[in-house]
Design brief:
0% strand
């Protein structure tokens, strides 16, 4: 799968993501391929499981930022919603929001893993 096809499959704006990397498809592809190995999502899940809400907030916020930088729009949106749900107190729907983040993350990683070398 090409990088542009990957972004299209993710429902993300390829041209905007490309512009964030100075127009370098090589640079965007490099960072997109690194995303599945980033430790943020596992740390978010661990913090949630341990009810460490401060760390969970930080990890959700970090994930949101990573996704914004890479133009991973759907995951950026769901992680932004989770970030806000954890900002001051744990919202009643935080578990549901985490499940949406997990689903978006799994979809994103699955598609990125199909990128051509």
């Amino acid at each position: 799968m090409t990088l542009e096809a990957c972004y299209n499959a993710l429902g993300s704006d390829y041209k905007t993501a490309l512009s964030r990397m100075g127009g370098s498809e090589k640079l965007l592809a490099k960072f997109a391929r690194k995303f599945p190995n980033d430790p943020t999502m596992p740390a978010l899940l661990e913090a949630f499981e341990g009810k460490d809400w401060q760390t969970a907030f930080r990890m959700a916020h970090t994930l949101k930022g990573l996704c914004a930088n890479l133009g991973l729009d759907k995951l950026q949106q769901s992680s932004a919603e989770l970030t806000e749900a954890l900002r001051n107190t744990v919202a009643d729907n935080a578990d549901q929001l985490l499940e949406q983040v997990r689903a978006d993350y799994d979809m994103t990683v699955g598609i990125i893993n199909d990128l051509d070398e």
